[in-house]
Amino acid sequence: MEGNSRLAIRLDHRSDKAVRGVVLALAVSLGGCASRPINEPITGIDPEVGYRPSVLVPQRANNERSTLFVLSFSGGGTRAAALSYGVLEELNRTGIEVDGEQRRLLDEVDVITGVSGGSFTALSYALYGDQLFEEYEQRFLKRNVQKTLIWRALNPFNWGKLLSGNFGRSELAAEYYDEILFNNATFADLIEKAGPVAIATGTDMSIGSRFGFYQEDFDLICSDLNSVKISRAAATSSAVPVVLSPVTFNNYGGTCGYQYPPWVKDILSIDEHKRPAGRALERYQDMSAFADSDSRPYLHLVDGGVSDNIGVRGVLDSLEEAFLSRQFAQERGFMQIRRLVIIVANAHSQETNDWEKKESPPGMFSQLMKSSGVPIERYSFETIELMKDRAAVARWRRDLLVARARLAGMSEEEAEASIPDMEVHVMEVSFDRITDPERRSRFQGLPTTFVLPEEEVDQLRGVAGELMRQSPEYQAILRSFGAAADE
Question: What is the CA 263 to chain-centroid distance, rounded?
Answer without folding.
Answer: 24
